[in-house]
TrEMBL record:
Record family assignment: Belongs to the YkuD family.
Chain ranges of the Peptidoglycan binding-like domain: 87-125
Protein name: Putative peptidoglycan binding protein
Keywords: Cell shape, Cell wall biogenesis/degradation, Peptidoglycan synthesis, Signal, Transferase
Organism phylogeny: Bacteria, Pseudomonadati, Bacteroidota, Cytophagia, Cytophagales
Signal peptide: 1-19
InterPro entries xref list: LD-transpeptidase_YkuD-like, LD_TPept_cat_dom, Peptidoglycan-bd-like, PGBD-like_sf, PGBDSf, Transpep_catalytic_dom
Any one GO molecular-function label of the UniProt entry: carboxypeptidase activity
UniProt-listed CDD domains: YkuD_like
L,D-TPase catalytic domain location: 153-321
Lineage: superkingdom: Bacteria
This protein's pathway: Cell wall biogenesis; peptidoglycan biosynthesis
Any GO BP annotation: regulation of cell shape
Any one Pfam family match given in the protein's UniProt record, by short name: YkuD
UniProt organism field: Pontibacter ramchanderi
Length: 388
């Protein structure tokens, strides 16, 4: 298995990647609902407490002196991040003990745990307990909706946490960073099955992207398509598609409204889907896929896509699925991995349940309540788009 994994990684990536995140088991806490209910009770009390907010331009580092230090101390005492009495509780000095408490707060909110009160930490501190209560209540409702009788193994993507986890035999086997849809192009909540792996996929560019984002470029430079390994097709009278040169089109007459073309990006270094694509049942054009642009995975906030879910290390997921769900021998798997065929489809013998959820609050394996930013505003509207 180790040799096979090395072969796969070597084939897909010439340079070593970043290791997958640690495999904590936050979704396997057996008393998750009980923990959420306890947190709801806690925040029911906190919602009437004095909660201090901070100016957006505030910057605090350990050792600083500020009149806002007392407010920070009071908030962190309420949330339980400051667990003991601060020896300088009436001081304006930002102590080491208070810095340690802020690091706990930052870790629970997936922020850089640097003890610095900066823009993103300020945004989290300025969320009042009533809003956190709403997050907890909504997450409990959503948890109950998808957690009944989950067969193992299963894949779970938590959109606000920007993660995918593979759960099997009550263990987290994979924990991958993800990039999800922008707020105006959200990834859709879904309970479905992943059924197919595509090696070396083509990208059939959606008309909305082609007409709104690529068309303005073509008006300036029709040669753009060739530079990006893209091909242009025209819709024919018989209902098919005919490959044409982008130089044969008078782009000055083409608008988003009358755009009657298809753009396809073939396999290559510029392919937006990278080397792998994973298909699941859905009524919208969304899927899991690799990417040729890895640097965005270093960002804390990763809502950058047009709705699809990008995976930081998709080769790890593909290897597991081939070994455990394809019914193939190891020799056959090695041949599949080594293929240079374009658009090479592998249908899984045993599809894997895939749950795409929107949880902005949960209890981790240490019974610590985690919060994430409500990137799509679902907690405010109390509406979640769900595909059945």
């Amino acid at each position: 298995m180790a040799r096979l994994l090395f072969t796969f990684l070597l084939f897909l990536y010439a340079l070593p990647g970043i290791a997958s995140d640690s495999t904590e088991v936050w979704l396997l806490v057996p008393n998750q609902k009980q923990q959420l209910r306890m947190a709801i009770a806690q925040y029911e009390q906190l919602k009437d407490s004095v909660w201090y907010t901070f100016p957006n331009n505030l910057l605090l580092r350990p050792g600083d002196t500020s009149r806002y230090t007392a407010h920070l101390r009071a908030n962190l005492l309420l949330t339980g991040d400051l667990t003991g009495p601060d020896s300088t509780e009436n001081s304006s000095h930002y102590t080491r003990q208070l810095a340690t408490a802020l690091v706990r707060f930052q870790a629970r909110h997936a922020l850089k745990a640097d003890s610095i009160v900066g823009p993103r930490t300020l945004a989290a501190l300025n969320v009042p307990p009533l809003q956190r209560l709403r997050q907890l209540q909504n997450s409990l409702y959503r948890w109950e909706a998808f957690s009944r009788d989950l067969p193992q193994p299963y894949l779970i993507v938590n959109i606000p946490d920007y993660t995918l986890r593979l759960i099997d035999r009550n263990s987290v086997l994979l924990h991958l960073r993800t990039i999800v849809g922008k707020p105006n192009l959200p990834t859709i909540v879904n309970h479905t099955q992943l059924h197919t792996i595509v090696f070396n996929p083509y990208w059939y560019i959606p008309n909305s992207i082609a007409s709104k984002e690529i068309l303005p470029i073509l008006k300036r430079n029709p040669g753009y398509l060739a530079k990006r390994d893209m091909e242009l097709f025209r819709h024919t009278a018989l209902g098919g598609w005919q490959k044409i040169s982008p130089w044969s089109v008078d782009w000055s007459t083409v608008t988003a409204a009358n755009f009657n073309y298809r753009i396809v990006q073939v396999t290559g270094q510029y392919n937006e889907l990278g080397h792998l694509k994973f298909l699941f049942h859905t009524r919208v054009s969304q899927y899991l896929h690799d990417t040729n642009d890895k640097h965005l995975f270093a960002s804390e906030k990763r809502a950058f896509s047009h709705g699809c879910i990008r995976l930081q290390h998709p080769e790890e997921l593909a290897l597991y699925l081939l070994q455990e769900r394809s019914g193939m021998s190891e020799q056959r798997i090695e041949k599949v991995i080594a293929t240079d065929k374009d658009e090479y489809y592998i249908r899984l013998k045993k599809p894997v349940p895939l749950i795409i959820v929107y949880l902005t609050a949960w209890a981790d394996e240490f019974s610590v309540i985690q919060f994430r930013e409500d990137i799509y505003g679902y907690d405010k509207s109390e509406v979640v788009r769900l595909e059945q």
